[in-house]
Structure formats: structure tokens, C-alpha cells
Amino acid sequence: MGFLKTCVLRRNACTAVCFWRRQVVQKPSVRKISTTSPRSTVMPAWVIDKYGSNEVLRFTQNMMIPMIHYPNEVIIKVHAASINPIDVNMRSGYGATALNMKRDPLHIKIKGEEFPLTLGRDVSGVVMECGLDVRYFKPGDEVSHKPKSLTHTKAASLPYVALTAWSAINKIGGLNDKNCTGK
Asked: Is the separation of the CB atoms in 125 and 152 below 8 Å?
């Protein structure tokens, strides 16, 4: 991975230009690199352009498909999404400071660059593309290895509810994999 950080890979030429060595290294053309292509495709999405009440919600058919920025990320083609209390609160600005810190830990970007912000954290769909370090998923996998008996709509309604129930059982009830046998 260190080689990729210090080199620029040209996809078509299969050549790596190493600036720190000032040399060109030919790479075999069979190496498969998983990167997102330039933003040329759009998708429909509910977005907000500022924090506020329901009036800030806007539906667009022209939201740019996200790009993989880190090697542990995946791009999902969303078949269904659900809205939960987190999304409603995010619309009002909840978590903005934490999300902006995660997006821009060095405070390089200017304020407001998080917009348009796509809502809908609970999703079900199919993995389209994987970052270089992703090993658990591959393109074509249903997220998150959705049981075949569930529709995408039903699967999208579960994550927040399931994590809330698990948290209550685990944190409040004290049950875990070591002490819940037979319960």
C-alpha cells in the first residue's frame, strides 16, 4: 500500500510514475486496481442544502455518485433506504460537528462543503465497487449479506432498530456472547 501512496498510477498506460524516485516503472497489465471512475454518473437522492426543518428537504435526480476516497470504503447501489430518528436529527444539524471532523480532520475545507448532504443511513442494496483494503465484501454482494428471505425494503428498515435492540440487550441487560447461552 505504501507504493500506491507515493506513486501516481495511470490506468490506461499501466505505468507508475514515482516522483520520489524520478523514474517510470512499467507495471503488468493484469493488476486489477479498484478505484472509482470520474464523477460522470448521477443518481436520485433526497438531500439537504442547509440544516433546518422539513422545508430544507429536496429531491434530485442529479446527485453525483460518490467516489471511494479511502481503501476501506465501498460504493453501494441502494435499492431501499429508510429514515430513522438519526436522519431526522441530522436534517436539523445533529452530528454536524462530528461528521465534519471525520470528513476533514485537519480543517482544510471551508464551512458548508458537506452540502448537499444525502439522508438515509439505513440502506439495503448491492455492492458496486470496493476500496483496495476491502476483503469482506465484493461487487455484487447484497448488503449486509442480506438474507434472501428479506426484500430490500424490509432489510433497509432493520439496521437502526436492530442496533438499538442489541444495545439494550448488551449494555443495559448485560448479555453477551460469553454469558447468554441458553437464555
From this structure: yes
Distances (CA, A) of 13 to 6, 17, 105, 174: 18, 11, 34, 57
Question: By the 8 A CB rule, do 144 and 162 touch?
Answer: no
Instruction: Give me the residues of the chain with pLDDT under 50, please.
Output: 1-31, 33, 36-37, 39
Query: Taking the chain, what is the end-to-end CA distance rounded to the nearest angstrom?
Result: 45
Report pLDDT for 112: 63
Q: What superfamily does domain 40-172 belong to in CATH?
A: Medium-chain alcohol dehydrogenases, catalytic domain (3.90.180.10)
Residue type, 172: I
Residue pair 46/119 in contact by the 8 Å Cβ criterion? yes
In the block, residue with C-alpha cell 453525483? 64
How far apart are the C-alpha atoms of 14 and 164, rounded to whole Å? 47
Own/partner contacts of 24-31, CB < 8 Å, gap of 24 or more, are none
pLDDT at residue 146, as a whole number: 85
Picking from 76, 96, 92, 85, the residue whose alpha carbon sits closest to that of residue 143 is 76
Contact yes or no for 71/1 (Cβ under 8 A): yes
